[in-house]
Design brief:
Helix content: 25-40%
Strand order of the largest sheet: 1-10-9-6-2-3-5
CATH architecture: 3-Layer(aba) Sandwich
Number of domains: 1
Number of strands: 10
Shape: globular
Oligomer: single chain
Strand content: 15-25%
CATH topology: Rossmann fold
Structural class: alpha/beta
Distance between the termini: 21 Å
Largest sheet: 7 strands, parallel
CATH class: Alpha Beta
Radius of gyration: 16 Å
Length: about 220
């Protein structure tokens, strides 16, 4: 189990602002090193606030490729889709290239295989959230997807009313670094288990050498 570092900030807004500063810095570093920045983004509340703050940063959008960590199987434009919120959060004049998960396809297994081909050999950064039940990405408790080790993109069973397409542990392990954003008192228990190295929760099985957590005081009151 990789041991993550953690910063505890005042509130969710402070987490979003700090995350934006880190992401922009990582992006500039990646562009200087190899002329591009590959970012995989999870769904949930935290990334959209981060992107709102990121617009104010010195961010090399045109050299940025954004991938989805996970997506609900739902029609185009559906409010359940992470892609809807992602596109709404990006600068109005565009710039970044977005690789959307093809969850509208009739053959979802073939679509997952096709998406896998688009992924970089190594992500510069993977953003992850943390659910109160310990899930991250759409790696959810009790799902067979947790044991997938021969594919980098897979499908879940129904979870909270929707099947999901998700990056698997081997895909996340490709990341140079992982940034967890964790806000809200409902996440406090799961966050403590993650910090304790509890591999019985899905988030506890993420294996990346450089793993950093930004949490607010509600999620980490003793931080």
């Amino acid at each position: 189990m990789s041991t993550p570092s953690i910063e505890v900030l005042a509130d969710a807004d402070a987490v979003a602002s700090r995350a934006a500063g880190l992401v922009a810095g990582y992006a500039r570093e990646a562009v200087a090193e190899h002329a591009g920045f590959s970012l995989a983004v999870s769904g949930g509340r935290s990334p959209w606030a981060m992107f709102a703050a990121l617009i104010e940063q010195d961010m090399p959008w045109r050299q940025t490729a954004i991938y989805q960590v996970d997506e609900r199987v739902a029609p185009a434009g559906d409010a359940d889709r992470n892609l809807v919120h992602l596109r709404a959060s990006l600068p109005a004049d565009g710039g970044a290239t977005v690789f959307a998960m093809p969850v509208e396809d009739a053959d979802l297994d073939a679509a997952a295989e096709r998406y896998a081909v688009t992924l970089p050999a190594s992500f510069d950064l993977v953003h992850l959230g943390l659910g109160a039940d310990g899930h991250t990405a759409s790696l959810v408790p009790g799902d067979a997807v947790l044991d997938v080790d021969d594919r980098v993109v897979a499908l879940t069973a129904v979870y909270q009313g929707r099947r999901r397409m998700t990056l698997t542990y081997p895909a996340i392990a490709r990341a140079k670094r992982v940034l967890f954003l964790v806000t809200g008192e409902d996440k406090a228990g799961a966050l403590q288990r993650l910090l304790d190295g509890d591999r019985t929760i899905p988030a506890g099985r993420v294996e990346v050498a450089d793993m950093h957590i930004l949490a607010d005081r509600a999620a980490r009151p003793s931080g």
